Amino acid sequence: MSKKKKKSHAPALLGALCAILFVLIAGYFAVLRPLKQRAVNKVAEKAISHVAEEAGVESSEAEALYSNMTEEDKAVVQDIIEEHADAETMQKAVDLYQDGDMEGLKEMASSELSEEEIQQMKELYQKYVAE
Fold first, then answer.
1. Fewest beta carbons within 10 Å, which of 14, 47, 81, 112?
2. Spatial separation of the C-alpha atoms in residues 116 and 107, rounded to whole Å
3. Alpha-carbon span 75 to 113, nearest angstrom
């Protein structure tokens, strides 16, 4: 009698796992990363606006300040924000923004950012106000 060999399902299973991993990674880079970047960008804009408003700049001028910054300076602000951008913090910031709670965003920035980070943003603000 001849013995029947069992077919191994390992290659098919490994291929399926690789496909799932590929889809998850592609989803992160295609969807989640751009969403996080937009949220970080919006929070960074509001943080700089807050620093400007605290210095007595009108709200409309304060909002324009971030858009006038160089990409390099925007990256500095975004890096500061991203250091605190865990999922919970970003969700809270997005909720506050969507609710129009700018006071809440200001309080959040004050509690989340270190004095050094706030000082760094104030220096960037001064750089663009002096121009």
1. 14
2. 17
3. 16
